[in-house]
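Checked the freezer inventory, then went back to the computational side. Two predictions to log before the end of the day. The first one is the construct we discussed on Monday; recording sequence and C-alpha cells without edits.
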Amino acid sequence: MSGKLLKSDFYYDLPEELIAQDPLKKRDDSRLLVLDKATGEIKHDVFHNITSYLKSGDCLVLNDTKVIPARLLGVKEDTGAAAEILLLKNKGGDIWEALVRPGKKLRAGAKVSFGNGRLTAEIIEVLPDGNRLVKFLYDGIWEEVLDSLGEMPLPPYITHKLKDRDRYQTVYAKYEGSAAAPTAGLHFTGELLDAVRNMGVNIAYVTLHVGLGTFRPVKEDNILDHHMHTEWYEVPEESAEIINRTHESGSGRVICVGTTSCRTIESAATASRNNTNIGNRNITDKANHRGLWNVAPGSGDTDIFIYPGYKFKVTDALITNFHLPESTLIMLVSALGGYDNIMKAYKTAVKERYRFFSFGDAMFII
C-alpha cells in the first residue's frame, strides 16, 4: 500500500459470476473464511460452525435495524414518464430525504404518482448533494401504504428479483428505518443464535439505520478527501452495559456482526470515567488498556470513516461479508484485519470461488 492511502490500493479483481444473486436456501449454509489478524492465517469453514470460533464470555453485537421497502416505482403526473424514488431518511412527518430517477426531470415542484394515485410524492427541495426532500400525500397508515407499494431496495449489482422479502432481513430485525440490510447478520438463524447464547456468549443489540451513503463509491483518489454521509444510531443502556462489562473484564471479545455494528460502537466509544485524560490518543496494545474506553448509551448521527491507521477502541473481532473493491467497507475491514492480510484474504476468496457481497459468504476476522 502506498503511503498516501489511495483508492486504488483497495482494488481487487472480481469475476462477475462470483457476485451472489440469490440467498442460499438455508442462511447458515454460507461459507466462512476465518482470518487470524495477528498471523494472517486463513481457514475455510461453514457459517453454522461459527460456534467453534466463539467462547463463553464473548459478546456479539448485532444491528437490529429493519429494512423498509424503500424503492417506489411510479410515473410523473404531468407526463406519465417512469420515475423512481428511493427513501433514505425520514426527516419528520411525511417528509423524506430520497434519491430520485431521472434526476434532471424531478426538480422542485415535480409530482410522482404511485399505485394509481394511492400515493403521491412532491419534490420540495433539491439538496446540495443531489438528493431530494420529498413530501408524501396518502390516505391511511403510512407503513401499510409503503408495504403494499414499495419494493426492497436491493443493491444494483443484484439483478435477480427477490422472491421472499424476509431474506433481505436479519431474523432479529426490529426497528424500521434502513435503506439496505446489515448483511453480515443475514447468515444467522434463530437456532444458531440460541446455540450461541447457550454456550455463554452474550448478545448486545444496537441500531444503525443503514443509508446508501455507506455504499456510495469513493470518487476521490486520496481517500482522506472522501466525505461520509451521516447515519442515525442508538445504543440502549442494557447493550452498553453488556459491551462494557465484556470489554473491561477481558474475559471475552467484543465481536461486531457487520460493519454497521462496528461503526456504531466505535462512534459511541468514549473515554471511561476513570481515564478522562486520555482523550483520543492512539492505543497500540488493546489487551493492556482494557477499560480506557467505554461505549456510551444514547443515540445520534455518525459519519465515522474507518480506514487503515484507525485504532479500534472497543471492537476486538468482526463477522462481515465480502465488500466491493475500493469501497469504504473494505477500507474498514483492512483497518481491523491489517491491509496485507485483507487483500490476501480477498485474493484467496476469489481463487476459492467464494460468493461475494450482500447474499454472499462471510468472513470472521479474529
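The second is the one RB wanted added to the comparison set:
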Amino acid sequence: MKAIIIDDERLARLELRKLLQEFPEIEVIDEAVNADEAISKIEATQPDLIFLDIQMPGKTGFDMLAELDKSPHVIFTTAHHEFALKAFEVNALDYLMKPVEPKRLADAIQKLQISENKEIRTDTEFTNNSILSENDQVFVKDGERCWFVKLSDIRLFESVGNYAKVFFANNKPLILKSLNALEERLDEKIFFRANRKHIVNLRMIEKIEPYFNGGLLLDMKGGEKIEVSRRQTVKFKEMMSL
C-alpha cells in the first residue's frame, strides 16, 4: 500500500518513517512539507494512504483535503487535540497525537486493513468488473429493502464514509461501496465525478450555474444542488462543449 507523509516538520517525518518500518505492507513513496506540494504529489502518484499534519504554513490539512477530487485514506498526525471531531467529519481513519506512539500507529494500520477488506468484500459481490451501461440494472439492498434499479434512473451517488448513498426517485439507500470503486464501473460519458463526494448523472442535470472560486453549481432533477469543484469544472466544460 503506497503512502505519502505530509508534515512541515522534518523530524516528525523522519520519526514516522522509522515507525512505519515495522509495517512492511505500507510503502512510503514520498513526502511533502505543505498542502500545495502534497496536492501535486497526490495527483501524480495516486497513493492509497496519506499521513497528514493539520497545522502547516499556508493551507491546513483540512484545506488540502477540500481541494482534492479523490481522497486517499487519511490518518491525521498532529500535536493539536482540538481538531479530532472535525477530522472524523472528513472520514479520517484515525487521529494520532504527536509524538506518535507505536501502539496507536498499529491500531490505525489495523483500521486501515479492516476498511480495505470491507471494500474487497463489496467488490466481489459484482459478477464482473466491466463498465456498466445506462441500460443495465443493478441490485440495491439497504437493510430489508431491495430494488432493481436501471442505471439511467439513478441521478446521483454521494459518498458517506465507506458507503455510498444512491439517489433514485424518492429513495436514497446506502450501499457498502466506495465512490472510487463505483466510478471505475460507471460510464464516464453518463456519470461525472463532480467533486470528492458526488458522482452525478449528466442526463439528470436541469440547470447549470456559475459558482464561487470558478466552480459550477448543478441543479439536479431531484432538487439537489451539487457543486462542481474548480478542477472538475475544467473537465466538465471540455466534455460538454462542441
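For RB: The radius of gyration is 19 Å. The first strand starts at residue 2 and ends at 6. Let me know if you want it refolded.
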